[in-house]
Amino acid sequence: MAKAYKDLREFLKTLEEQGQLVRVTDEVMPEPDISAAGRAASRLPNGPAVLFEKIRGYKGSVVTNVHGSWQNHALMLGMPKDTPTKAQFEELDRRWDKFPVPPNVVSREEAPCKENTITENINLFDVLPLYRINEQDGGFFLSKASVVSGDPEFPDDFNKQNVGTYRIQVKDKDRVGIQALAMHDIAVQLEKAERKNERLPIAIALGNTPLVTFMASTPIGYSQNEYEFVGALQDGVPTDIVKADTAEHLFVPAGAEVVLEGYIIPRVRVVEGPFGEFPGSYSGARLQCEVQITRITHRTDPVFESLYLGMPWTEIDYLMALNTSVPLYKQIKESFPEVVAVNAMYSHGIGVIISTKCRYGGYAKGVAMRLLSTPHGMPYSKIVIIVDGFVDPFNLEQVMWALTTRVQPSKDVTLIENAAGMPLDPSSNPAGMTTKMIIDATTPVPPEPDPRTVELLKDPVGTQKYTTIIRGLQQAMDQK
Amino acid sequence: MKCPRCDSEKTRTMAKSPVGDVWEVFVCENCWYSWRSTETPVVLPKFKLTDELIANLGVIPPIPPLD
User: Fold this and answer.
1) Average confidence (pLDDT) over A144-152
2) At residue A1, does pLDDT exceed 80?
3) Same structural domain for residues A352 and A406?
């Protein structure tokens, strides 16, 4: 069974042991040091997490880039840090089928996140070393929170409890703004509360075990519980949760560093943003919801976990890479078992590459349309490339080969106009409306004509043997 | 003190540094822009706000009718 982490601290310890966490012990300024380090670390090929021990004017520490490399991603899964991306995809695919693994509910006394409680004179700055992430952001944001909320119509339905990542702007010492886009699960719950002019209780958990954060940003079904998926992705090891203090029906990760509890103020929208977003550009100011914080619980000496997001790739692109690819793969595969793999790593699935065997003519286009009718693919996916089953969609050289030699644009490129789009994609116009493009880069199969059938080149006999020989010779040279 | 984004005078101190007296964070109660005293905020023209612009900003998500 793979290694599972009880909390963020256990994971940071492993990262450090594996050379994937560095400490900055000198005092730094909140701006621009923390963001600059997040940017720099996520650009390195084996980028480590960066832990700042002293931030000027603050009590606590900050860690950034925890998920920000394939090495850290592999360690999150308890795999060797040099595990290739496709192998990590395949392992996630295997573990996905263990869902549901019910979480372990611990008592308040057993939950580290309840070590300290603040109910009066709430001041987020006392607990969190808040800082500006990008220069034109409208304030200080929480970029890596797992937000827990319930369905007001079915408060006791654990499956409808949502754990999601939403951007959060600090508006005051005890008040934050939250972005709940109409396509997101929390917006469904908020609408029900607002129709009755009721507060929507929420808990904002910061600094979680890495697969909680991973699942919070994974697009799964509305009635699928994220905690039950965390147990599955921990290869069957349940994750620990505990009841929130202010809402009987909400459960938070027991090992969280900090939990902010409160409620969304109903029927109120206040200026929020701009915020540097994952497509690599700022999303402008809008009128958005606000949360009144009424209680904070936290571990002693909490570590504030935050991520830098900017021009891709940054930490958020690693975080939202395979957790977007695997659920889309599962949903499409259910209808079309011929699908081999899905790479939805580009801007949270705005760009997707699918490899599939084609049973009959037009099959690739059908597979693309299935993607575009999944709950996530419908608003997000815009550029869809379908390649043959023998093409590795995670290998962009192979994908480019398919595009350059399989595609006849006059028949293989399809545009679907006036479709749903991702509002943060600046090419969508108006925001949220887009044109989809399907590129069929597969080899035609009957009844589609293939007038110029070709014989594909094969590796010469002995290639595998010589791969080993050459690698050995190279290693011998390195050792000299 | 004027807000660097909307020029409103409705600004105040939101928080002071928990350790030492090394910085303050200011907030504008008109447009809710916030900044630290150690920063030199330069808001790009495209992100400047006026009362008219604020009144016409998009609403996310839309407020539903009451049941």
Assistant:
1) 97
2) no
3) yes
Write the residue in A139, A181, A272 that is nearest to B61 by C-beta. A181
SS in 3 state form for A312-354?
CCCHHHHHCCHHHHHHHHHHHHHHCCCEEEEEEEECCCCEEEE
- Give yes or no: residues A194 and A257 share one domain: yes
Cβ neighbours, 10 Å, residue A261: 23
User: Beta strand pairing status for A351-356 and A383-388?
Assistant: parallel
Q: How far apart are CA A4 and CA B32, in angstroms?
A: 41
Q: What tens digit of pLDDT does each residue of A412-470 get? A: 999 999 999 998 899 999 989 999 999 999 999 999 999 889 999 999 999 999 999 99
Min Cα distance B9 → chain A (Å) is 17
Quote the tokens at residue A286: 């809008």
Is the CB of residue A351 less than 8 Å away from at least one CB of chain B? no
How confident is the model over A215-269, as pLDDT tens digits?
999 989 899 999 999 999 999 999 999 999 999 999 999 999 999 999 999 999 9
Mark whether A328 and A312 lie in a shared domain.
no
Tell me, what DSSP letter sits at residue A108?
G
Q: Which residues of A262-275 are buried (b: 16+ CB within 10 A; e: fewer)?
A: bbbbbeebbbbbbb
Contact residues for B46 (Cβ-Cβ < 8 A; gap 6+): A284
Q: Which two tokens stand for residue A227?
A: 């905690």
Per the structure, the complete domain to which residue A330 belongs is given by 321-441
pLDDT digit string, tens, across residues A387-414: 999 999 999 999 999 999 999 999 999 9
